[in-house]
Amino acid sequence: MSAFVDSVVLARKEAADDAGVLSECVTQLQQHNRDLKQHIAQLDAEAVKEATAGWGTNDRKLIVSLCARTKSQLRRTAAKYRELYDEDLREAVQSETSGNYGKLVSLVLAPKDVFFADIIDKARPTLNLALNLTRALALALAQTPTPTPYP
């Protein structure tokens, strides 16, 4: 553990009956947690920038930086990326990736509303094909003479 966390745990042990000290310990730990989250977001933003700099993309670094994070972590990383480089993280990554891999990374970085819009947009050609096949089948069935029952 870090020296900071050790000191908070020690203070909690020494003043276990003092509600004020316990409250202060919780407040300090929460602040430390927020600071750690921001630090991780900065490291991830820097790693993405390094992974997409120059010729080619360091896919391994990109995957480690983005695909093992929760949506809330990705939002912090995107905000930090915007702050550091004045660029949109999703657009930067989209411009450096392609194919199914690029689609996957783009979806990983999408906010919830954009995610669903992208899924519908990507499914549209398949849906159009299914709709056209259904129409053709209905037309073919409508033009097929109905067999007469045998007497």
Can you describe this structure?
The structure is a single chain. By secondary structure, the protein is mainly α. The chain has a single domain (3-143), classed as Orthogonal Bundle (Annexin V, domain 1), CATH 1.10.220. Helix content is 79%, strand content 0%. The protein is built from seven helices and no strands. The protein is elongated. The mean pLDDT is 80.
Briefly say what this structure is:
The protein has seven helices and no strands. By secondary structure, it is mainly alpha-helical.
Mean pLDDT reading = 80
Unreliable segments of 5+ consecutive residues = none
Most strands sheet: none
Rounded Rg: 27 Å
- Count of all domains: 1
The SS-based structural class is mainly alpha
Give the proportion of residues in helices. over 70%
Strand composition percent: under 5%
Query: Number of DSSP helices?
Result: 7
Give the oligomer, counting copies of the same chain as homo and different chains as hetero: single chain
Distance between the termini: 90 Å
CATH superfamily name? Annexin
* SSE string: HHHHHHH
Total strand segments = 0
Q: How would the global form be characterised?
A: elongated
Name of the level-1 CATH class: Mainly Alpha
* CATH fold name: Annexin V, domain 1
Architecture per CATH nomenclature, i.e. the level-2 architecture: Orthogonal Bundle
